[in-house]
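Lab notebook: predicted structure, single chain.

Context: the supervisor wants predicted structures on file for every construct in the current expression panel, including those that have not yet been purified. This is the next one on the list. No modifications to the sequence; it matches the entry in the shared construct table.
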Amino acid sequence: MGLLTEAQSYLDKLERICKQFPDASRCTAMIPAVSGEKGWLLLKSGVQSYNEAMYCFEMAQKKYPNNIDWNVGYAIVLSHLEGLSGATESADSSQSVKQWRRVLELDPNDAEAMVQLALKLRVFEQYEDANTLVQQALAKSPGLPYVLRYAAKFYRKVRNIEKALKLLDKALKMTPKSAFLYHQKGMCYKNKIQTLKKSQGSKGSGKIDTLINDRKECFKKALELKPSFILAELGYAHICSINEEYREAEDIYSKLLELENTCPENKQEIRFQFMLFEQNYRHSNQMPSNIFWKDLKSNMTQTHGTIVTPIWRK
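Prediction complete. Output recorded below exactly as produced.
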């Protein structure tokens, strides 16, 4: 912009700051606070930035290992990375479990860390410990939306759907514009529909129709609040398929299949669910072509070296 005097003043400020750090060069200093803030920014930027975010939190912790904020960020990014790779075999070998335990050592009353650790322990089938942590978290912070929404996710995963819905409704009263909460409600209704079909079959058709409509409204609301919510779009497309609204479902899948600026995990999920639509609702006796699977496989191996478990099955 030609503002050379102003530019020089900022360079002078930077140089004065860097002189405070003995290992720094003239205009470069590894300041833990900068690394920590950068880690949070990268964490919110999406899956493609997780590895760099992990490195930033590690750098911040080297100087201040007891900083709660950076330990929490480190635990979150480790949880995400483990969820993507699916390579961890037990809680003892899970770095994210160790890190969430570390957060609770630093702050035993951190209810958010309790529910996050509970969700990880559930994956490794340590249900008793996980359930205890969720109960403790709800007792300590019964009015914290973040705790409520992840406690609800835990109860949905262990098939206590009524408890999950109760917590989600409570959280929605506090944060009525949360697309995540509406999506979670939609997932709860999906579980209720599956259970009702198994137990009552065609006898429960009336209740099933009501639940299908409730589920559709939840995904619709989530998309109104966050139009770029891919999982909610996929859920909405699936409901359209069940309702025999095939043209609308196909339009949604067609739009999603054309997305380029999204992570490989989303691309995989889109293709996988479109494949199920083709197989189940077009009444085709043939599986998708080898080209489809080749495309799906290359999508994942280029990024992670393996094909991860589809999101809907986790």
